[in-house]
């Protein structure tokens, strides 16, 4: 992150809740590593000279837009248009604060359903979807909408997790096993949350995008290592997963007996002891897919 970006980010922190700070730290930390490789695949680089009309669909905290803002030349951004949309008003609220606090250029927001945006046809040169198609039920409806709103020759791009992605799982599994009570952790944590296709398999994705009418389809597997600064960063970055695990796998009785705050403290204590108060590396495996729309 540049010094200017860091200064802008500090302004955002003064205007958001602790809950929102967790999402923002993840956006500027490990999550950007999972989104950034998509940019060059979508021909969005520091050498880009032509203005873009970009749609960040199912944007979350708008990490895709964040990376585009950090990458494209200012002169290009000044002539471009960008729209960030998500079905969550809370996420859009965070993005609005980011736009102002981080001085993003020509970025607007809207609350929209990625499967039915209602946006005009042939509106965008680029549509990006970061880490969502393996989570949204009925993802083909998202693809249909993307094709509709892309201009002829427009580029679609998305990222999903590979089925063998480990990421935060080994550390959380070991921590749960160390708790002084039965903290259930499933034998397998699936990367995909629905049964529509297999968005964790590069070969399947390539075939499927072609069958959906995309041309010049490229599907690449990106592996990497992210260094966590300390236990605090782990708990802050992956805090949302703790609550999800508790709600999904634990009984109501267990959740009442051991609330989220207690679990977070136990997790942090385990990690601090395991890594002796130092940082450590985690591995990730993410799929980047792109395709062109011919009309």
From TrEMBL:
Gene3D superfamilies tied to this protein: Vaccinia Virus protein VP39 (3.40.50.150)
GO MF annotation list: methyltransferase activity
Every Methyltransferase domain range: 56-154
InterPro entries reported in the protein's UniProt record: Methyltransf_25, SAM-dependent_MTases_sf
GO terms (BP aspect): methylation
Keywords noted in UniProt: Methyltransferase, Transferase
UniProt record similarity statement: Belongs to the methyltransferase superfamily. LaeA methyltransferase family.
Record's protein name: S-adenosyl-L-methionine-dependent methyltransferase
């Amino acid at each position: 992150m540049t010094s200017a970006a860091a200064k802008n980010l500090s302004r955002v922190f003064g205007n958001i809740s602790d809950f929102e700070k967790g999402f923002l730290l993840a956006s500027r930390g490990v999550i950007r590593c999972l989104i950034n490789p998509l940019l060059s695949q979508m021909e969005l680089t520091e050498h880009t000279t032509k203005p873009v009309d970009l749609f960040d669909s199912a944007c979350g905290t708008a990490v895709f837009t964040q990376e585009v803002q950090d990458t494209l030349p200012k002169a290009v951004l000044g002539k471009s248009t960008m729209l960030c949309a998500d079905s969550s008003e809370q996420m859009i609220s965070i993005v609005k604060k980011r736009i102002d606090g981080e001085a993003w250029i020509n970025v607007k927001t809207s609350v929209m359903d990625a499967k039915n945006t209602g946006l005009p046809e042939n509106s965008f040169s680029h549509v990006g979807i970061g880490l969502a198609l393996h989570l949204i039920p009925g993802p083909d409806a998202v693809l249909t909408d993307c094709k509709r709103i892309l201009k002829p020759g427009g580029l679609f791009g998305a990222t999903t997790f590979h089925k063998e992605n480990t990421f935060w799982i080994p550390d959380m599994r070991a921590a749960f096993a160390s708790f002084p009570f039965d903290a259930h952790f499933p034998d397998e944590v699936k990367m995909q949350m629905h049964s529509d296709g297999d968005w964790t398999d590069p070969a399947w994705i390539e075939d499927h995008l072609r069958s959906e009418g995309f041309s010049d389809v490229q599907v690449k597997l990106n592996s990497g290592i992210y260094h966590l600064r300390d236990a605090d960063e782990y708990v802050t970055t992956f805090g949302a997963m703790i609550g999800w695990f508790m709600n999904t796998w634990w009984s109501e009785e267990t959740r009442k007996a051991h609330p989220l705050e207690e679990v977070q403290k136990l997790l942090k204590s385990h990690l601090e002891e395991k890594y002796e108060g130092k940082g450590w590396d985690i591995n990730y495996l993410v799929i980047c897919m792109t395709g062109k729309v011919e009309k």
